[in-house]
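Apologies for my clumsy wording, but could you write out the amino acids of a protein and the tokens describing how it folds?
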Amino acid sequence: MKIREKGALYLEYCRFRKELNPKTISAYRIDLKQYFDFIGENGLDKKRIEEFITELHRKYKQKTVKRKIATIKAFYIYLEEEEFIADNPFRKIKVKFKETFTLPRIIPRKEIEILLNYMYSHPKGSGQYWLRDVAIVEMLFAVGARVYEVSNIRSECIDLNSGSIRIMGKGGKERYLQVVSSSVLDLLRKYYKANEAAIRQSGYFFINRNGNRYTEQSIRLMVKKYSRLAGIERNITPHMFRHSFATYLIEEGVDISCVQPILGHSSIKTTQIYIHVAAKMQAEILRSMHPRNKMELLGLVS
């Protein structure tokens, strides 16, 4: 069996056995195709694999390289477990990464307030779709979910009485989130009531005008549109609500070990980056607002 055929089997395994998100499988497919195009049928040639890794480092940033190599390594583990190969060449290849440390971009609280106030005071078009747009923005900030997680919420996965939401996250991992704001929950109920028939038929909670799932790209464009209309110059993306959600919780003193499962991070190291963001914001606040900085003192006597 050729290596591309084995790759197709692996993608089927990811889809039906591991039940991975379609977006994840699509990324795997792209990574594997790129690898197969380079490697040919030399899938067990250690030198050729190392040449591919070098080529990745030439073309991409470290974060992208790390993801692509992780895809290939997972593929070889699958080949080994399924006994397609007796020896995994990746076990003899050492890969090191020197990643740049980039803090997540967050939205200032005031701008979130401006955006929501604009959306509530300027209903656009049909009321039912305006309700959907406001409900999505409120949910992004209320529970810190990823945009594709919100887009893929099934109607049966949300309890409008208790506010409990069952989310399918990365790697098909399931977690439960809670909408605790009564006003946000009331908004979700109004949206559902206005679209109940179409939601039931679609199976998805957030739907477009054709009764289909409201896609991630549609959510991104919607957030961009309302941000512009609200007069916000910052380029706001749905994922920035997730970053803001985590940062502000930590700022309020919530323990990082409590934030980790809400975000669906498998490692607490991933969540720890928000501590750095909160610390940076604290320093900026003290720098601009601390009364000591406004005092006119004589200073040290020489």
